[in-house]
Amino acid sequence: MFTAITERVTVLGNRKTIIIGGGAGGLMAGIFSAENGNDTIIVEKNKRPGRKLYITGKGRCNVCNNCDERTVIANTPTNGKFLYSALSNFSPSDTISFFEKHGCPLKTERGSRVFPVSDRAGDIVDTLVRAVNESGCTIVNDEVTDIFIEDGRVKGIVLSDGNIMECDKLIIATGGRSYPLTGSTGDGYTFAKKAGHTIVPLRPSLVPLETAEHFGYDAEGLLLKNIAVRVIDTAKKNKCIYSDFGEMELHRYGLSGAVIRSVSAHMKNMENGRYRVEIDLKPALNEETLDARLLREIGNASAGIYTDILSTLIPRALIEDFIKLSGIPADKRCAEITRTERKTIIDSLKKMTRTVTGFRPIEEAIVTSGGVSVKEIDPKTMGSKLIDGLYFAGEVIDIDCYTGGFNLQAAFSTGVLAGIS
After folding, report:
1. Residues 6 or more apart in contact with residue 195 via CB below 8 angstroms
2. Of 92, 106, 221, 412, which has the fewest beta carbons less than 10 angstroms from its beta carbon?
3. What does the DSSP assignment read for 177-225?
């Protein structure tokens, strides 16, 4: 029992609220808990809080999306409706107001994505930490190894040295399993499971894809801009389940980049070969317009060979792979290219197909799909329905969103709601 255990270790006083995890959700929870008059402490195992925030948005930190609550929910494919109360309490406009009120000016870019004017993720972290300190919340650099529950309610936590810290309320905001070097190692799932909570199986989301067809060494890391993709689900009679437009990176293992990470969020029940990605390298041109351009290029290089034409249509690093895809000899003279072969070239440009064999490891994912079941969390408070005094915030909950600032908004909103509850 908890009482017996505390007789054998040092009890480091009683805190009204303890938060495990100093990421986006945990920091917000600490600020709003302390501002509500609670004696609040955040226990963060990294030497610096907000470590994962430093790498979001390619180091710029896509803070949120400048949109309404319904748009956030629409961009949350996993349990989006669960966020209704949290977003009603702390919306994207509240997020923007919060940072600007605390001295961090923001700007809105393409896709309504919001970034700090400085383009420095560190400014977002500094603002959150400053707000934590101003609120009266304390950040402690230590690791929580266990939690204590007695008679159906939270009693405290165990620190790395074996000492116990008692509390009345405990918020688990430990993040998911993605980017473990930032401290997201899945501790929260262990704590939640000990409390009796169901953990929905984890899988990577917003993650690169491995494909059966591999690109050559010349194309490794190649960034393709302004391309379109379609996701085909062969288990649903080849139905297109998602389409998008943006940037994509080519790798020997398969596909990456912003558009591919968004695509991955729609691939439920991943199976080798179930999904294929159709890539349109020329989405701005229809087939007729593209054929006219191809004829023009052939006319301009009539004395040349097939590869000469390709160099005017696609990046040089992709030519070798494209030749294999089209099946047309690389040294075929332009003047000898037939109408049928032109059709093959156009089809290859408009629908380069890659068969997905699986996700890249969860460690490479931006977010973790799965986690603490929302069926066991009160959406109006973020409180556990099983254990009195236990709350959850952020990625540890079974929620994941598309790219565009929506995941951070979910973390901020659930953190604020947990903190004030």
Report:
1. 147, 149, 384, 386, 387, 390
2. 221
3. SSSGGGT-SSHHHHHHHHTT--EEEEEEES--EEESSPPPGGGTT-EEE
Class of domain 2-197+364-420: alpha beta
- Contact between 248 and 224 (Cβ < 8 Å): yes
The residues spanned by each domain of the chain are 2-197+364-420, 215-359
- CB neighbour list of residue 289: distance below 8 Å, 6 or more residues apart: none
**Residue range 185-225, pLDDT digits in tens:** 789 999 999 999 999 999 888 899 999 988 777 789 999 99
Order the strands of the 64-65 sheet from edge to edge: 64-65, 113-116, 106-108
CA distance 232 to 236: 8
pTM beyond 0.85, yes or no: no
Q: Are strands 164-172 and 383-384 parallel, antiparallel or unpaired?
A: unpaired
**Interval 342-384: pLDDT, tens:** 999 999 999 999 999 999 998 888 888 899 999 999 999 999 9
